[in-house]
């Protein structure tokens, strides 16, 4: 039977008194691959951070594997890919060091770096094709390459639950396909994935559920957008802005137009 990875009930977040999320009910079961969609500023990153307890709720509640974030202890289960790399000023971390930091939640239990840690870091670097840059300062990498470092850091922790905030932002088409293959492998292995996306592109086939945020609420929760299939169906009359674009095109039509 599937567990409940995340369960938010009536989740509200406000910044400086201005509501961004106005009552989110979202339950994610293990094995689901959920895409959070929505226009710029709709609150997708805020929702992801609130699910992890990184942004406090001003109302409602949220659980990670049945525990409030403050009482959740099994952080090794969660692989978080934030929207961008926060490199501490002046600290020249190498790519390998940043990726290895993804093992910390596990090392607390195992106490010191093991052969398993080294193997997991090497495998994660290889999965994002950055093995040859392992010794470089992470600041020397391009934005897209830094995004791959963040993905590798999450992979290195071998979590069972991935939370990715726009993992494909700024990465080229080949890397998107690489990530899609990596994700497909994780999904086959029964991992749970919640990801924020503006365009699903090659990720589309692995997504099992699309959740569209709009007006601070969930505007759609159901099958993921499948532009080609949906638009090709008999009786599908209206025009999407993306209708003339390839599958990898932006889902802008979707974001403002929940079914
Ligand atoms: N730390 C913060 N302080 C104040 N306002 C914030 C903060 N973080 C986000 N916001 C505001 O909350 C709203 C939602 O932002 P959020 O980043 O969650 O949206 P998003 O859907 O992820 O956007 P995008 O698609 O552009 O990444 C925006 O209006 C943003 O300006």
Automatic annotation (TrEMBL):
Q: Where is this region: Disordered?
A: 218-259
Give start and end of each ABC transporter domain: 1-240
**Record-linked InterPro entries:** AAA+_ATPase (IPR003593), ABC_transporter-like_ATP-bd (IPR003439), ABC_transporter-like_CS (IPR017871), Metal_Ion_Import_ABC (IPR050153), P-loop_NTPase (IPR027417)
Matching SUPFAM superfamilies: P-loop containing nucleoside triphosphate hydrolases (SSF52540)
In terms of SMART domains, this protein maps to: AAA (SM00382)
User: Where are the compositionally biased (Basic and acidic residues) regions?
Assistant: 227-243
Give this protein's Gene Ontology molecular function annotations.
ATP binding; ATP hydrolysis activity
User: Which keywords describe this protein according to UniProt?
Assistant: ATP-binding, Nucleotide-binding, Transport
Note whether Transmembrane helix occurs among the keywords: no
Could you tell me the superkingdom of the organism this chain comes from?
Answer: Bacteria
Keyword flag ATP-binding: yes
Q: Which PANTHER family match?
A: IRON TRANSPORT SYSTEM ATP-BINDING PROTEIN HI_0361-RELATED, METAL TRANSPORT SYSTEM ATP-BINDING PROTEIN TM_0124-RELATED
Family note: Belongs to the ABC transporter superfamily.
Name it.
Answer: Zinc transport system ATP-binding protein
Task: Tell me the classification of the organism that encodes this protein.
Answer: Bacteria, Bacillati, Actinomycetota, Actinomycetes, Streptosporangiales
